[in-house]
Amino acid sequence: MSEVTGVLLLWKPRGMTSFAAVQEVKKIFKTKKAGHTGTLDPDVDGVLPVCFGRATKIVEYLTADSKTYVGEVTLGTSTTTEDASGEVISEKKVTNVITEEEVEEVFSQLTGEITQIPPMFSAVKVNGKRLYEYAREGITVERPQRQVTIYGLTLESKVIKKENGQVSFRFQVHCSKGTYVRTLSVTIGEMLGYPAHMSDLTRTISGRFMKDQCVTLNQLKDMSVNELAGCLVSIEESLSNYPKTVVDESTENKIMNGAILPQLIDESPVALYNQQGECLALYQTHPKRIGMMKPAKMLKTNH
Fold first, then answer.
1. Could you list the residue range(s) of the whole structural domain that residue 99 is in?
2. Inter-residue contact 78 to 198 (CB < 8 Å)
3. Which secondary-structure segment (H or E) carries 247?
C-alpha cells in the first residue's frame, strides 16, 4: 500500500480514548501518519473523522466544523467530571414537577452565543499543563472562559421522574467547536434549580459527516486492503463545503510554490483546484495587501 491518504469516518466505541482509537486504525491501515478531528471522551461514542497522510493537513479545518450530539441530562446529582464517570459532589432530590415547557424555555435561553468555563477534568491547557492533570492532584486552578455557539438545542424525550428522586431527559444539540456538552448539561440543571450531570452522550454528526457514513473498528478488522481503501473519503470530498475555484496550469504552478495571488473569489478561505480535480490549497484573504490572497494551507507542493 502506498502512503494512505484520506479521511476515515470512524464510529468510536465507548470505553476507549480517541487517542487509542486512532492507534488502532493506524495498525489496521499500516500507516504512521494519522490525526483525529475533535476528541471524544472515553464514555462517549460517535463520529470521529480520522485523517491519514496528506489529509492530516486539513485536521484543523475539520476540527473547526460544528458538531451535533444526542445526550441525556440527569437532575439531582452533580459530579467532579460533570458526567456519569465522576464522583458525586452534590445531591438534591427533585421535589417539584419539571415540565417540558420549562426545559424548552431553558433551552431557548441557552441558544446562541454563550460563555463556558471548561471543566477541571478536560484537556484544556493552563500554564502548559492540562486541567485534568491538576484535577487528579486535587488542585483547582482558574480556568479561561470561552465563547461558544449553540445553534440548536431541542428536547428529544419526555421528562422522566425516577424512583430515586432524580429526573432525566434527552436532548439534541448542534454546537460550535469547543463546546463542552457536559458543562452545558450542568448549566441546564442550574437553570432548573438542581445539581446535574450529563448521563449519556453520542456524537451523531461532525461537520458534514454523519453516523450512517461511519465504520466500526470491528468492521475494519475484517476488511481486505481494497475494502479498507474504499472506506476513505478524499481530501476533496472532505472540503466540499468550502467555496471552490478551478485554476489554469500556470496558476497551479504558482499555488504549488505558495505564491500570493490576486483575489479570485470574494469568500475566504477558498479551496483552489487544478484541472484534474485535485485540491491544491486553501487560500485566504491577505491581511495587508488589498485584492490579494495568500495560502492558508498548502495541500500539494512542488518541493
1. 67-206
2. no
3. none
